Amino acid sequence: MNVRRLIPTAAVASATVLGLTALSACSSSSAADKNDGKLNVTASFYPMQYLAQEIGGDHVSVDTLTKPGVEPHDLELSPRQTATLGESDVILYLKGIQPAVDDAIGQSGVKNTVDAATLTKLEKHGTGVGHDHGHEGEKHAEDEHGHEEDEHGHDEEGEAGADPHIWLDPVKYAEVAEGVGKALEKADPDHAAAYKKNTKALVEKLDALNTKFEGGLKDTKTKTFITTHSAFGYLAERYGLDQEGISGIDPESDPSPARIKELQDIAEEDKVSTVFFETLASDKTAKTLANDAGLKTDVLDPLEGITDKSKGDDYIGVMESNLAALQKALGAK
Ligand SMILES: [Zn+2]
After folding, report:
1. Of 8, 52, 154, 176, which sits with the fewest C-beta atoms within 10 Å of its C-beta?
2. Are 43 and 63 in contact (CB under 8 A)?
3. What is the whole-number distance in angstroms between the Cα of residue 251 and the centre of ligand 1?
4. Which of 119, 103, 223 is nearest to 181 (CA)?
5. Residues 6 or more apart in contact with residue 46 via CB below 8 angstroms
6. Rounded Cα distance, 308 and 12, in Å
7. What is the distance in A from the centroid of ligand 1 to the CA of 232?
């Protein structure tokens, strides 16, 4: 008999608890009802993670699909990652760089997806293949690059072969930051003021970084740099440099013997001092090339992931290391 009397009491008590929970959830933004009221943002890889963290600050909980130290281009998602992707309030990604991620996002059912590629203007870049020393004029060289891209299959990624590495140009990255800020304001209007303020602060940091790059690379002995994969096309264009990639836009593709020979010639003609390699992709070809041509090697980090070994704690820190490495390699005055 006592038991009967206890049951309603327990039921009333739990109903009260449920009521309170429901009430507190309603008082916060509808999208931000998980993770202690924080907006759940899933970022596809580091450059997206950095934007989400800088702009979202304390109001977001950021999960990154590409774990530190993993080369992102050919990332495959685990079934668990695919399942949890559907629980995101916002997904921030860059279409064209990780095909498996693009597919999973398409199937996730999440309405609030932000494609960074739509927040700035993408361009096609040559890989430096077909570099023509006999002719001056960028236009001519670009036409050649277009043809060569088709032949070498470097245009597999992205729509119509557009180069996805926009984050390596601080100016384009700032444009993406502005768009991400607006997207977070819309997804979580309760904290719009904070997102606006954080976006402004980040854009100012990126502007300062751009100024440093402009000044630091204005007067150099050579404009040509050799990299492992062609991640620095936007950066090269922004600061008037000439990127010569060993492999294409995808770090997994192998260069032809003809390309290696060509790079050796370019290195000699353009007085290249250094072959750059990176931390997440294979450095074998870069080191062989440098060895054969009597060149130095150094790290130029495409920031596709960040680890303890990265030369900097975050995007800005690594980019500053990249600037120092470029200044040294190009003979900045
Ligand atoms: Zn890349």
Report:
1. 8
2. yes
3. 6
4. 119
5. 64, 66, 68, 72, 303, 304, 305, 306, 315
6. 52
7. 9
Ligand 1: distance of its center to the CA of 194 in Å? Answer: 32
Lookup: tokens for 87:
């629980």
**pLDDT given at position 255:** 87
Q: For residue 246, which of 304, 217, 287 has the smallest C-alpha distance?
A: 287
**Pairing mode, if any, of strands 113-115 and 242-245?**
unpaired
CA 20 to chain centre: 41
Q: Which residues pair with 92 in a beta bridge?
A: 43, 114
Cα 218 to ligand 1 centre (Å): 25
Mean pLDDT by 10 residues, the chain (333 residues): 43 42 39 72 98 98 93 91 94 95 95 97 72 34 36 38 94 98 98 98 98 98 94 97 88 84 95 92 88 94 92 97 98 95
Which tens digits make up the pLDDT trace of 284-311? 889 999 999 999 999 999 999 999 989 9
- What domains, with CATH codes, occur in the chain? 2-121 (3.40.50.1980), 128-167+207-330 (3.40.50.1980)
Q: From CA 203, how far away is CA 170, in angstroms rounded? A: 9
Long-range contacts of 141-149 (CB under 8 A, 24+ apart): 149/124, 149/248
Find the 190 Cα to ligand 1 centroid distance in Å. Answer: 36
What pLDDT digit, counting tens, does each position of 125-166 carry?
865 543 433 333 333 333 333 333 333 333 334 345 799 999
